[in-house]
Amino acid sequence: MKQRLSIISLLLICVLLVVGCVEDNAFILPDDSTTEQPDGGKDDGKGDDGNSENPEPEPEKPDYPNTAWAAGELDWVFDMNALPEIRISVTEEQWNELLKEYDRDSNTATYIHCDAEFKSKGETHNFVDAGLRLRGNTSRRRPEGNGGEMHKRDNADWHHCHFMLNLRKFQKDDAHELHNVRKLHLKWHKDDRAYCRELYCYDLFRRFGIWTAAYSSYCRLWIHVEGDSKAAYYGVYEMIEAIDDKYVKKRKELFGDHNHNLWKCRWGASLNYNDRNNVSINVDDDSGANYTYELKSNTENFAAAKTQLIEFTKNLTQRTGKDFHDWIASVCDVRLLLRTYAVNVVVGMWDDYWNNSNNYYIYFNSSDKDNYKFFFIPFDYDNTLGTSSNCGVQSDSGRHDPLNWGDTGRNPLIGKILQFDDYRKIYIEALNELIDPANALFYYQASIDRINGWHAMIRDYVVNDTEEDCEIKDRPAGWGNIYDYRILDAGSSMNFFKVKAESIPSK
């Protein structure tokens, strides 16, 4: 009798459960796909053999490229956790020659002879008869004194300026390479009293898997002019990989080929076919002239390279609809390009291609007019992280709409791509991936911690013999149009990382 009552009771409970589920959802049976397992994981719907007829798709993971190609070379030279010492020695005659060349033409690309020592992580490398020249566009300066003045022994008026150190300029042998690196762009922290903006951006590109971005790190720089009692300490500098044929060759497996057309693109390089008669296109002729499009490699085939560039701009400008959608996918890694541009936008790079037709390189991995892959290479990121300006369509680099970053009618590449839902989805997902706190990429606290770590490494070394930029300060450039942006104050309503994150469209 008791057994029969138990059975009846069990049946009644089952009926109540079923009725409850159907009528008012008072009882919800657990979803097997989310049942917690003893190991803390979740049931993946598969049996012990790992198979299932209808397995749940795993979330897509970013396919970051293997960077083993840089190990032991770029990773050693450009180490953000190290502070290399670079000592350059030059005769007084050669130093005065550099000053004369600047006075003759401030855009001079003339190299002088020097010796160089590179010391880092227990290694010392010495280079006899290397080359040194000035660099920069609007930021180029005279490294000592005023126009017409020659070197003043032990009483020099030193000035911060950008240099290019070319270890192989005069001696073409392996002994004049530093872990397979032959050029170092030595850049002072112009207009960045926070001593971090450009290096933060290049570091973020690398963290985000953008393999086209140059490598970079900090260093300390001395210049000794023969006859002076001691070397002039120029302070903490940026050290940036040169974008040239060597840069391409190191990435040849990723580019697909390394013997073709690398262009440096300056202001006015809109990639708009309608501008073709209003721009200058030339080879790098060492004259110091600033061409709009300057061919840096494969210069012996300039005519074919120019034809290819113009044909690319014609297709980019004139194709529309599905024709453009399919063409751009055939000549470009659209996902890589849009993820590159997502970094460009979150860091607030307004002096760029889309907004100001400026500051980038491009590479075509074939010389064929129609059959090639096109690569966009980011460049020059000092005017970022709250250094804002009234330029192009922008007046606030923190709050400006990432989907309308520039004038697409003028600079068509990115805006035309984003007209398509599938491409725009890639871009928006990349923006959100960057600001996601879990990824510790552009998230404000992760960024502040990263920068504070770098400052702890360099703070004691920023005082220098130029008596310029001798203190780290959390300020944007004084000439900018929004002076209240901060990057290290987490509580500020004008913290750039927070303001920019708020501008990102949701997925």
Describe what you observe in this structure.
The protein starts with a helix and ends with a helix. Strands 1-2-3-4-5-7-6 form a seven-stranded mixed β-barrel. The chain has a five-stranded mixed β-sheet with strand order 9-10-8-11-12. Among the domains are: 143 residues, no CATH class; 189 residues, no CATH class. It is globular. By secondary structure, the protein is α+β, with helices and mostly antiparallel strands. The chain is built from 14 helices and twelve strands. It is 29% helix and 16% strand.
Oligomeric state of this protein:
single chain
Low-confidence stretches: 1-62
Helix percent reads 25-40%
Q: Which geometry do the CA atoms define?
A: globular
Largest sheet, in brief, is: 7 strands, mixed, barrel
Number of strands: 12
Query: In what order do the strands lie side by side in the largest sheet?
Result: 1-2-3-4-5-7-6
Name the beta content range: 15-25%
Q: Find the structural class using helix and strand composition.
A: alpha+beta
- Our measurement of the CA-to-CA distance between the termini, rounded to an integer number of angstroms, reads 63 Å
What's the rounded overall pLDDT mean?
A: 89
Cα-atom radius of gyration = 28 Å
Secondary-structure element series: HHEHEEEEHEEHHEEEHHHHEEHHHH
DSSP summary: helix tally: 14
